Amino acid sequence: MTETFDAIVVGGGSVGVPSAYSLAKRGLKVLVLERRSAVGQGENKAAIGGVRATHSDPAKILLCTRSLEAVSTWKQVHGDDIGWKPGGYCFPAYSEAVESTLQGLLPKQRAFGLVNDYVDADAVAELIPGIVREGLRGGTYSPNDGQVSPLLLPVILMRHAERMGAQLRVHEQVTEYLVEAGAIRGVVTNQGRYEAPIVVLATGSDAARDGQLLGIPIPVTPDSHEAGITAPVEPFLAPLVVDLRPGPENKTVNFYFGQNHEGQIIFCYTPKDLFVGTNRESLSEFLPTLAARMISLVPRLKHLLVRRVWRGCYPMTPDGVPIVSNVDGIRGLTLAVGMCGQGFMLGIGVGEEVASLALEGKYLLPKEASDTLRFERDYSSGKKEALK
Ligand SMILES: Cc1cc2nc3c(=O)[nH]c(=O)nc-3n(C[C@H](O)[C@H](O)[C@H](O)COP(=O)(O)OP(=O)(O)OC[C@H]3O[C@@H](n4cnc5c(N)ncnc54)[C@H](O)[C@@H]3O)c2cc1C
């Protein structure tokens, strides 16, 4: 039997769930199809939960500003605890080059209304107690950024979407997209067949495979990253910290960590040599490299007890900017893929954009920003974003 919906969202992850939420809020009868056992079990649960509007790409700044507005007021508006912890982001600078890159981004960020500032070394040391002072020049601080629990947010958003009539089917993998006369008609899964005039593709690291099924080349290539979490300690660290130094072991590009709402320190780094693919087995070199990196920045953190580590993927596009777009030639199909290392923070902003694209056929964002999100764009400029 074929069931009919107003919209089908394929993938119940960082962007699929908020997309379903936004579509349900607009009154649509929405179906979410997720191949795993629950929402948020793909790359979403690998995220450390950082939510910042501090970017260099205008679309990311605007989408994440929207996400921040929603997550920072979620408890007051809806009553649920999503693990929101304010405290901002701090990027310390130990070299003139990093200092000038960070300072160079401020005018653009301020033009979009962000209250980010460059603060001196004393202020950075106050924000990050115990940070190594030698060579510390200062850093940028963005007080309105923060953290949210990647385990709580998708579950709570899905619950709200369900209250508005959305349905979730887990263990359902989309195996076929039904396209007729230049328009999407629905999908086939391992369990059944569903029809809808709107289909949102939000399949994260698997997006290129869906592109093959649809006959459109979706340029998403996952590379894997590791993270970890410690036992809780007394709250001492307000901001999420991004250290842009290459690191003492020269295996990492940057390193970031923060203390979450439960007191745990949550951390990860970007490896110098990227691991392309979807391998999720933890590497033995991760923890020793990470520990050296963390202690070189804040020596007192050597006392932390690490509880567990994990590995997940960044679904990368060639230019490091997501694809949030309708597709010429397939009416009713909206892509929300290629979220790179920021899909969790982009989620709610992207969800609202998806609803507008699917229903009105246009972006909410101004054209200058939305052009970078289009599927039909020139990806050849490479990874041009200064803050990824
Ligand atoms: C170590 C690490 C730390 C990170 N930290 C952060 C952070 O602090 N902040 C941040 O914003 N981002 C962070 N990220 C990045 C973030 O996790 C990803 O960008 C984001 O989760 C991608 O969202 P998505 O919805 O595209 O993919 P996913 O969350 O993976 O969702 C896609 C879903 O689609 C499902 N699916 C796939 N194919 C099908 C199919 N055919 N049928 C049905 N279902 C299907 C999958 O099972 C999955 O649940 C981090 C990533 C890693 C690895």
Q: Topology of this structure?
A:
Layout: E1 2-4, E2 7-10, H1 16-25, E3 30-34, E4 50-51, H2 58-78, E5 85-86, E6 89-93, H3 96-111, E7 117-120, H4 121-127, E8 138-142, E9 146-147, H5 153-163, E10 167-170, E11 174-180, E12 183-189, E13 193-195, E14 198-201, H6 207-214, E15 221-230, E16 240-243, E17 252-259, E18 265-271, E19 275-276, H7 286-297, E20 306-316, E21 323-327, E22 330-337, H8 343-360, H9 367-370
Parallel strand pairs: 1-13, 2-3, 2-14, 3-10, 6-16, 14-22
Antiparallel strand pairs: 4-9, 5-9, 6-8, 7-8, 11-12, 12-13, 15-18, 15-19, 15-20, 16-17, 17-18, 21-22
Helix pairs in contact: 1-5, 1-8, 2-8
The chain binds flavin-adenine dinucleotide.
Looking at this protein, list some descriptive labels.
alpha/beta, FAD/NAD(P)-binding domain, D-Amino Acid Oxidase, Chain A, domain 2, 2 domains, nine-stranded mixed β-sheet, six-stranded mixed β-sheet, 9 helices, binds flavin-adenine dinucleotide
Describe the structure.
With 388 residues, this protein is of the alpha/beta class. It contains nine helices and 22 strands. The chain has helices at residues 16-25, 58-78, 96-111, 121-127, 153-163, 207-214, 286-297, 343-360, 367-370, and strands spanning 2-4, 7-10, 30-34, 50-51, 85-86, 89-93, 117-120, 138-142, 146-147, 167-170, 174-180, 183-189, 193-195, 198-201, 221-230, 240-243, 252-259, 265-271, 275-276, 306-316, 323-327, 330-337. Helix 1 packs across helix 8 (343-360). It binds flavin-adenine dinucleotide. Flavin-adenine dinucleotide binds next to strand 3, strand 15, strand 20 and helix 8.
